[in-house]
UniProtKB/TrEMBL annotation:
PROSITE patterns per the UniProt record, alphabetical: ANK_REP_REGION (PS50297), ANK_REPEAT (PS50088), DILUTE (PS51126)
UniProt-annotated stretches for the region Disordered: 1-61, 486-511, 684-743
Entries under PANTHER family matching the protein: DILUTE DOMAIN-CONTAINING PROTEIN, DILUTE DOMAIN-CONTAINING PROTEIN YPR089W
Name assigned to this protein: Dilute domain-containing protein
Residue stretches of each ANK repeat: 173-205, 206-238
Length: 822
């Protein structure tokens, strides 16, 4: 029934009311009364304990649930709190807001002003009621405490007005006078109030005590006074903080309280597992750790600055002119096989700096013991067996560049040790020659392994790869297409043609495969500390092989003798040039006392060895456009000094001319023929050795940057000779060229360039502290030592002393060596 319906007989008990007296019926509680039907989201409490059914009959069958992680907040403010400092940051903000309230209350008291007459007079005034006197004098007490008026405080709490004031009564803001005085740093007022009976732990409406305000505002004397009167530092405010939360560890305030006998480290935040920063005990530990870290950083910085540290001063210098007790390795003659099995036969190349030179270091220390304290026959036995085993390992791993680089590095370092030791340099001259031969053979094996890898992809990567797409559709003269031509594909739009190559196209074989192999070779050589002089010669030999192979394949393959193919190959060769510039190396080779290295750089080697193929490609691109001008021909030939007339004529005769492209005029061909016969001498002879060049002589072409006039690699070992001074001129003069056949068509890609070992000066600089002795870190790296791991494998303890069943030891005394070893 609606509210407006007329009364029915069933409503007899309720007499009808007039329309003005009728009231609407009450609506149900669950009926919406507004269009805003949003309801607050009800949050459910997290489970604090979970039943653990796996514990069976254990006493505790419940485990505590982990606390849900809180979402991180992102803020760009400089003072944004950390994740763990949220509560601390909230307390700091709370402190600031409370302080602003106190300042506002102080200003309010000043606005009220003083009562205008003496407090005693107000207390004795009969016109004022007791309630009015209490109100006036209480406000005066609060204002005096806030402003630091000690005289008025003493008069109020000790004079006639004493009965009308209460030192523990809060004002309208809920703050007692003691809190005002503690907040604003009025030390004498605090003392007067405490003497008058003020409750020291009285709190304001925010549950802040006087001690909290004193510590917040760093009032040390007031805080100490409150603590002396029994203030409780563990009282919590409405936000859950205590007075100790405002004491910064390590601050003057903290030290002041600590010196006065107040220690809060154990009671502050000791229960907080994750944040013990405010704990005094933990703070002292952190300070000690920070001090240790600071000392370590200072020591590291001193090492980086090459300043003498205590470690360097205490470190014993290796003596090369005599053998002292702990600078040799004492061994038993019948244990040589076990030692060499460990450091040679079963040795695996390691990357750590202390593990890489283990074979060279241990063999050298054994040689010192045999030479200085034993017999010459034992020295011969040690070095002979070591050389034989190293040769066996190299022969077994001749296709493993990692092993080859490891052993060429150790052989070079061992050769340096033998030359530097005053006593061994004469006694081991025969073995020094064997080491030089071993290094040379390993050098050749590294070259052959790298050439084998590059030869698999050289044609596809350098000769057939198309850097510029679309040049295969060019028609050549005299070439008939027997089969039906394929339908021409639609030209790609420029945006697709010139966009960067797709990943699929990048995965195809390209010049990047060759540069990747070069980079891998260089990485392995650097990884095992191969001397820079040897590394530069390896790169130079590989660049020569690449240039000679490309030259021969272009010269002997007709499909490459065209202008368009020459353009493609030239762009591919430029990738090798870019790699040489990016990975340019300067060998540490010094001559005649010079402090500047004079070896051939990688860029110079690439420029020298790639010159024949580059000039051949230039000749293929330009000779058809020379025309009848003889001067243009002569000017072009002068720039192509690395090509012989035979090679120029062969390229012209086998050239694939495009449709409509002119050939070289007959007059120019006649001139090239005269050059071939020796009737003309307008250009210099080429510098690159040819296939038919005589190899019986003892000299080979000299380098463009002054590399020594080399000798072919002989099977007999030769003592490394000192290189001659570098020359600034580019090509060598004609009288220094080796005799060669002018009719040679191809280059000798199998020719080994002259190989020279690093000189004694080079090794002293590279394996020592450098020029001026500034690089002490590198000098310590190449001191002959044996790591503790190797000593443990030899059944030695950490100090190098022999245990029962050991096979060697680090000697201590001459008599002890002989007694313990034999």
């Amino acid at each position: 029934m609606d509210a407006g319906d007329p009364a029915t007989p069933t409503d007899a008990s309720h007499p009808p009311q007039s329309p003005s007296e009728q009231t609407p019926r009450k609506l149900p509680d669950d009926l919406p009364t507004s269009l805003d039907d949003r309801r607050p989201f009800s949050s459910y409490g997290e489970e604090t304990e979970l039943y653990d059914g796996w514990q069976g009959k254990q006493p505790s069958q419940y485990i505590t649930a982990p606390t849900p992680a809180r979402a991180l907040t992102f803020d760009l403010h400089l003072d944004t709190p950390a994740y763990d400092d949220e509560e601390t940051f909230a307390r700091i903000q709370d402190s600031d807001s409370r302080l602003m309230e106190m300042v506002a209350a102080q200003a309010h008291h000043r606005e009220d002003g003083s009562p205008g007459q003496d407090e005693d007079a107000i207390a004795m005034d009969d016109k004022l009621s007791d309630s009015e006197k209490k109100e006036i004098l209480q406000k005066s007490l609060n204002m005096a405490a806030s402003n630091g008026d000690v005289a008025r405080i003493q008069k109020l709490v000790g004079g006639r007005a004493k009965q009308y004031v209460d030192v523990n009564q809060p004002d309208e803001e809920g703050t007692v006078p003691l809190i005002y005085a503690s907040c604003f740093g009025h030390h004498e007022v605090v003392a007067a109030l405490l003497n008058a009976g003020a409750i020291v732990d009285k709190q304001d409406r925010n549950q802040w005590s006087a001690l909290m305000w004193a510590m917040t505002n760093r009032h040390k004397q007031i805080a100490k006074m409150l603590l002396d009167h029994g203030a409780d530092p563990d009282i919590k405010s409405s936000s859950g903080g205590t007075a100790l939360d405002f004491v910064q560890p390590g601050s003057d305030f903290s030290h002041y309280l600590h010196e006065n006998g107040y220690h809060f480290g154990a009671s502050s935040l000791g229960d907080d597992f994750y944040n013990s920063g405010f704990s005094q005990d933990r703070f002292e530990e952190e300070m000690a750790e920070n001090e240790m870290k600071r000392r370590m950083l200072m020591q590291e910085s001193a090492a980086n600055l090459e300043s003498p540290t205590d470690l360097e001063v205490d470190e014993e210098e290796f003596i090369w002119d005599r053998c002292v007790g702990d600078q040799m390795f004492v061994f038993q003659a019948d244990k040589l096989d076990a030692i060499f099995d460990l450091i040679i036969t079963n040795m695996t190349p390691q990357r750590s700096p202390s593990q890489k030179p283990i074979p060279a270091n241990l063999i050298f220390l054994m040689a010192r013991y045999a030479h200085y304290h034993m017999t010459a026959s034992l020295l011969d036995d040690v070095l002979t067996r070591a050389m034989d085993l190293i040769n066996d390992v190299i022969e077994r791993c001749q296709w493993d560049m990692t092993m080859l680089a490891f052993w060429i590095s150790n052989a070079t370092l061992l050769l340096h040790y033998l030359k530097k030791d005053v006593g061994l340099v004469q006694a081991t001259s025969k073995y020094q020659l064997e080491l030089a031969e071993l290094i040379n053979e390993t050098f050749i094996l590294i070259i052959r392994d790298a050439e084998r890898r590059m030869n698999k992809v050289l044609d596809v990567a350098m000769l057939d790869h198309e850097t510029i797409p679309g040049l295969d559709d060019i028609a050549f003269q005299g070439e008939w297409k027997v089969f039906k031509s394929k339908p021409k594909t639609k030209d790609e739009p420029p945006e697709k043609r010139f966009r960067p190559p797709s990943p699929k196209r990048r995965a195809q074989t390209s010049p990047r495969n060759i540069t990747s192999l070069l980079s891998s070779t260089l990485f392995v050589l650097d990884l095992y500390d191969v001397h820079s002089v040897i590394t530069s010669q390896i790169l130079s030999q590989l660049l020569y092989w690449i240039g000679a192979e490309l030259f021969n394949r272009v010269m002997t393959t007709k499909k490459y003798l065209s202008r368009t193919k020459a353009m493609q190959i030239r762009m591919n060769v430029s990738v090798i040039e870019d790699w040489a510039r990016t990975n340019n190396r300067q060998p540490e080779h010094y001559e005649h006392g010079s402090t500047i290295s004079t070896g051939e750089t990688t860029v110079d080697a690439a420029r020298r060895h790639l010159a024949p193929i580059i000039q051949l490609l230039q000749w293929l691109q330009c000779f058809s456009s020379l025309g009848e001008d003889h001067e243009s021909l002569v000017g072009t030939l002068v720039q192509l000094q690395r090509l012989t007339p035979t090679q120029l004529i062969h390229a012209v005769k086998n050239y694939r001319a495009e449709v409509g492209e002119k050939s070289l005029p007959k007059a120019h061909m006649k001139f090239l023929t005269q050059l071939q016969r020796g009737e003309q001498s307008l250009i210099k002879r080429p510098l690159t050795p040819m296939v038919e060049a005589t190899e019986s002589g003892t000299t080979t072409p000299a380098g463009r940057n002054g590399t020594p006039a080399p000798t072919p690699v002989n099977k007999e070992p030769s003592t490394p000779q000192k290189a001659s001074a570098p020359s600034i001129s580019s090509p060598v003069e004609q009288d220094t060229d080796p005799p060669m056949n002018r009719n040679a068509l191809t280059l000798d890609q199998s020719l080994m360039l002259p190989f020279s070992l690093p000189t004694s000066t080079d090794m002293l600089i590279s394996y020592g502290a450098g020029i001026g002795g500034t690089n002490r870190e590198r000098a310590r790296k190449y001191i002959p030592t044996v790591p503790a791991e190797v000593l443990s494998k030899l059944n030695l303890d950490g100090d190098g002393r022999r245990r029962a069943g050991s096979i060697g030891t680090i000697g201590t005394t001459a008599q002890g060596w002989r007694n313990s070893a034999f």
